[in-house]
Amino acid sequence: MISLLASLLLVYLAIVRYFRYQRLYAVQARIRASAKEPSPSEAQSALQVALLCDMPFFTHLGAEVALLKTYGIPSISALLLKTGEFSTERKFTKRVTDTALLLSTFISCPLEHSPTTTESTPFLGPRSNIALARVNWLHRHYDISNEDMLYTLALFILEPMRLVARFDWRPFSPEEAKCSFLMWKDVGRRMNIEDIPETLGELEEWSREYESTHMVASASSHQLANMALEHLSTRVPNIPGARSLVKTVFLCMLDDQLRDAMMLCAPPKYAHILIKTVLVLRAFIVRNFKLPRFKPRRGYVVVENPPHSIDCDGHMRLHTVVRRHHPWYYPIPKGWRLVFDRLFGLTKGDLYPGAAFKCEGYRLEELGPTRFEQCMSRKFQSTSFLNSAISRRSQRSDEGSRRTVWSTNRKTLGPLIVSFHCLLELLNLLMDRLLFFITAISSVCVPREMFLTVSAPYHLVFEPFGWGVISNDISV
């Protein structure tokens, strides 16, 4: 019996090993087979494996650390406070959401749109170009130095790779690191950033020198850091000790120079040791015992996500696909989600999706400060990708365009379709259902105002292990 179990374990470990690196090997083979350097669009496509499939949690966390690290430069933090977009929690969360939507759009959607795209290809459109145009237009209203822009660009390249190398189950491969540099270099070129170094090594050296000169302690950096940490804590349940724990974990992700510039207290040494031990153990489990995602992780932007609403002016709008603590651009729940919210009294909270959080959706050319919402929108009222997406959506059912967890995975329950892949999907579905009911039960056992702060409360616990693949559809 023991030998049988040992044999099954060895077979399982071999299967995990094969599938765990399969996507990476395919990307490496495709890049090495080409005699020329990857184009920006090819680099972007190759990078999706790391960003959405293999290491989505720490690459996303690395982008958040990159944004926070910009607050350590006094010239950047002072300008951000001067904009007035950090004066209240609601303004702060709107800016965070808008920034995430714009960044996710030109990372996920293709940087080069070909008019010869075939009908069978998933609809992509020029969303990345519109997002970049919006970012450039917003930046023109502020006096931002080229060095600050270049430093921010460097952080979006370097920080995810650094964090992944420290804590995830594998680092970026040399091919992925090069693709990340090429993609972001093209983004920087489109943003008119000058003097971008020619290689990743030169960029890293320039960034280190810039930090040593400009990252110094300032009151503006301290103020922004406190606001960012407070925003981070609102994304976890209001359980005693939980929020302080999350803050401690995040502070351990920051280097000493950044904490000094933000005038933040360093976490105790035992916290560093404990967190590193947990993350190293997590990396070992994921690398050796967990099968990889069979579908990309859903983030702020889904490439195939078509417009979902038409406002009173006839403009088509997109909804966010993940509900956050402040549910900006998230549609008012319907169906069983609405029944669940009413059952537990969640519809009465001031953080419920509605007009205050623009539940009608967003348009890329309107993202940013409220005072700038209408300044660009007239130029894009007949945007081709929106019109085309609406026509495509009329040709497919809601099950194809905005699937629920059940409709996505119901095929795994059919007796005629039994395969290894289906069994994995079924396991994923059962895990998701179990976590959902745990959430529902926990809402009865804690005060209502505590439960209202929960946005997919198990997300931070299970997403690092890759179990949150389809859990973003279950946000309460």
UniProtKB/TrEMBL annotation:
Leader sequence residues: none
Domain of life: Eukaryota
One GO MF term attached to the UniProt entry: oxidoreductase activity
Domain ER-bound oxygenase mpaB/mpaB'/Rubber oxygenase catalytic span(s) in chain numbering: 141-265
Protein's name in the database: ER-bound oxygenase mpaB/mpaB'/Rubber oxygenase catalytic domain-containing protein
Origin species: Armillaria borealis
Origin organism lineage: Eukaryota, Fungi, Dikarya, Basidiomycota, Agaricomycotina
